[in-house]
Amino acid sequence: MKKNFTLLAIAILCGAAISFALASDEKKTVTNEGGTMAEKSVLDFTMKNIDGKDAKLSDYRGKVLLLVNVASKCGYTPQYEGLQATYAKYRDQGLVVLGFPANNFGGQEPGTNEEIKQFCLMKYNVSFPMFAKISVKGADIHPLYKFLTSKETNPEFGGDITWNFNKFLVDRTGKLVARFETREKPEGEKVTQAIETALK
User: Which of 106, 83, 115 is nearest to 187 (CA)?
Assistant: First the structure.
């Protein structure tokens, strides 16, 4: 009788431990275009680049990243010029600007990925990595931006994207270290100081 009770107790404890582990794993996972994975940093995500090919953000490990949701027909679209200049200035020190076209605000990114690519090249001579158009807000928000804006995964800098050209700065380890609203120019003092600090 005592032996049976001991076995039963062990079985219950094992079951509880397994349930706890599964629950913990469920909280730590996110589904993106690459499947289900641990949501530890932006470096865990696989995106589609502007040409439709898979691009692992982990390829930028060791770099400082400036992630920006961009648009081609916005009053702030000229910030492309500042983004390109900032990229050119700090690229050799380890900065990479990542552009994510999004049509969430005023229908200001209506074009196809090919049209966006041609616009960026012809109008602003963009040479930093551009990605396929995604949603950065709402029910269809891309998992990367859900990760960036969720108060659960990003309590310090979380909150909905407010407009085109919001900016997230990520350090060399993949940690988010700053966020800037649309009005903050990429070549402005506030953004520049944060970039230079992250590059040190």
Answer: 83
The pLDDT confidence band at residue 40, using thresholds 50, 70 and 90, is confident
Cβ neighbourhood burial of 50 (10 Å; 0-12, 13-18, 19+): buried
Question: b/e per residue, 176-197, with b = 16+ CB within 10 A?
Answer: bbbbbebebbbeeeebeebbee
3 state DSSP class of 54: strand
74 tagged catalytic: yes
Range of the domain at 22: 1-32
The β-bridge relationship of strands 95-101 and 64-70 is parallel
User: What tokens were used for 102?
Assistant: 């999004």
- Per-residue pLDDT, averaged over 167-177, amounts to 96
- 88-125, pLDDT tens digit by residue? 999 999 999 999 999 999 999 999 999 999 999 999 99
Gap between the Cα atoms of 171 and 166, Å rounded: 17
Query: Which is catalytic among the residues 50, 74, 116, 120?
Result: 74
140: DSSP letter: T
Overall number of domains in the chain: 2
Give the separation between CA 76 and CA 163, rounded to whole angstroms. 10
Strands (E), 45-163: 46-48, 54-56, 64-70, 95-101
DSSP code of residue 67: E
Judge if 178 and 122 occupy the same domain.
yes
Residues 11 and 96 in one domain: no
